[in-house]
Known about the structure:
- The chain is mostly helical.
- The chain has a single domain, classed as Up-down Bundle (Four Helix Bundle (Hemerythrin (Met), subunit A)).
- It is built from 5 helices and no strands.
- This is HEPN domain-containing protein.
- InterPro entries: HEPN_dom.
- Pfam families: HEPN.
Amino acid sequence: MRTHNLSQKVYTLLNEAKLDLEHKSFNKAASAAYFAARMALEDFLAFLKTPIPRRDDKLVHVLVNLGHVDAAQILEELYILRKKADYDRSEVTQRDAERALSLASQFVSSVESFHTKW
């Protein structure tokens, strides 16, 4: 379901993360969850006509500068899980993947609410 100014792809990625979790593809679930959150933020920044940083750490700083510290912490945690999924030798656990999906869903809801404040 599309709301506000977020692209359909945000919700597609969230759904894919859920399906990956159900199929025990925990690395894929964590990665998709992160990219859903990142895309939601990029959509919001485009709405604000704010330049979109390419580097993940810079995206976190943009959120802090906009006063959304809690959302910045969520995005940072999702990024850490994504790096674990994509680069670490250790596997993302089911618990990690569940947390990633929960955080991404929470983050997307937060970004949706940002639109009503701007």
